[in-house]
Design a protein that fits this description.
109 residues, mainly alpha, 5 helices
Length: 109
């Protein structure tokens, strides 16, 4: 999961999936179920755990800095900095990884 979140573009769907996986695990650790109706924030405070989306953003920043230090002939740096030459499908284009850095809504959610 760590590698996937570092390299995949952040969308509302990926955020929701990450939070769902995190809360499933945290509820199991805390010994709570959904029927106990304990809010997610309370479980995070009880276990002293940071929100997974904020953790993902920190990992993504660290990965970006790591790739920036790489030599220019490395595949990861070429993939990050390169522009695809093919055309994109019609309709709304999927969000790219680099676009996650320019999103204004990133820190709000």
């Amino acid at each position: 999961m760590t590698y996937a979140v570092e390299t995949k573009a952040e969308t509302s769907k990926t955020k929701a999936n990450s939070r769902a996986a995190e809360m499933k695990t945290l509820r199991k650790i805390a010994g709570r179920t959904l029927q106990d109706r304990v809010p997610s924030a309370e479980i995070r405070n009880m276990l002293d755990v940071q929100d997974v989306v904020r953790w993902v953003r920190a990992r993504r920043r660290a990965w970006n800095e790591h790739v920036s230090r790489m030599q220019s002939d490395r595949i990861a740096k070429i993939a990050r900095d390169g522009k695809p030459s093919n055309t994109r499908p019609p309709g709304r284009p999927p969000k790219r990884w680099i676009e996650c850095w320019t999103s204004t809504s990133q820190e709000a959610n």
